[in-house]
């Protein structure tokens, strides 16, 4: 935990060096209200939100956590209502963007949205880029409903202040960190024990294991969708070049992809594509991604990048005899080096077009209450609040100890940039072409050339 906190704080300090920060962009949204954060921009200005606010609308992504504990979000909303008297209308969908997108285009916004960056639709990135989020810096100093502690006093230091929560480098918070999850390579520990295989600690060892597995018709690697390469690539960049290279790369520094570190990152991904199950690209979509995850449970592939939610997401899936979840950091770039694990953050935010801003801020503050945290833990969702690790059990004990066993923690995302005609999102530029690398439709040279060209435009148009 000390490692993740020190890196989070270092990432926060590095923001002052960047011209603009944020996540991958998405096409601009038109006909939206101006950005803002005060109650005068929308919603009640009453000191008692429950006295005047209509029911607040909360839109949350239905993820593996909800699968592990059905009704998790409704239980939290009911607890909030019982504590504050503020009613909640909950929208909970796996395809949340498709459900709330059309109504927002018409000016009807949720008051609170739980949707992280890095999704295929890029909705959260779109709101960041277009500056359509409410400034929620004041939430950090709010007293948590039902408790005497403030949000900032309850939160583990360092989880606010990175470009994942303060996307513009102006010291203001627009996205609050919700669930955090160590991301790494997940595998069947039972299979490794049966075969007598050792989990690789370097990429050379990884390739050697890949050859052994291929001899038994087992692929070395798969991935749910290319979106999962964000956490993978962030950890890879850090393990190859450390924090300096990571910060330069995520801000598209001129010439960064021509460095030895940049080339090594591309070489590793390209070689890993050769060891990836060939069925993966066809199933790497929002409808069929679980079939790629199933490859691990069926011993048809050894490793996949994922987060701790995978256990709940695949809880009811069939699996090979003796299956047991294992998780490892990305291998070290060289012998004697440290592996790396990206700390994925899900974010909760308030659109600037929300009708009940004050009540919405009460809801966000409540997310850090002991009552809410205990409910979320039933689904395996871990809040960044003090003492939470001591409450973990089962597989989560292993997952969240990854930073105590030698892995470097990695936090931060690619900087946000303005919309430019013909310029895709970070996911489209950096990660989606991996499908082509695996299928053979895209060469490494094509991929790298496109990244370099896009990075020049991204750097020139930072928000």
Overview of the molecule:
The two termini are 32 Å apart. The strands form two sheets. Strands 1, 2, 3, 4, 9 and 10 form a six-stranded mixed beta sheet that branches. The model is unreliable at 1-47 (pLDDT under 50). With 463 residues, the protein is an alpha/beta fold. It folds into two domains: 15-181 and 343-394 and 406-410, Periplasmic binding protein-like II (D-Maltodextrin-Binding Protein, domain 2, 3-Layer(aba) Sandwich); 183-340 and 419-460, D-Maltodextrin-Binding Protein, domain 2 (3-Layer(aba) Sandwich). Helices cover 40% and strands 11% of the residues.
Strand tally is 10
From the alpha carbons, calculate the radius of gyration and give it in angstroms.
21 Å
**Which range does the strand content fall in?**
5-15%
Provide the succession of SSEs. Answer: HHEHHEHEHHEEHHEHHHHEHEEHHHEHHH
| Distance between the amino and carboxyl termini | 32 Å
Gross geometry: globular
In the CATH hierarchy, the third-tier topology of the largest domain is known as D-Maltodextrin-Binding Protein, domain 2
Supply the CATH class of the largest domain: Alpha Beta
Helix/sheet category? alpha/beta
| Helical content class | 25-40%
Q: What would CATH call the architecture of the largest domain? A: 3-Layer(aba) Sandwich
Helices, by number, come to 20
How many structural domains in the coordinates? 2
**CATH homologous superfamily annotation of the largest domain:** Periplasmic binding protein-like II
Low-confidence stretches: 1-47
Question: For the residues shown, what is the average pLDDT?
Answer: 88
Largest sheet: 6 strands, mixed
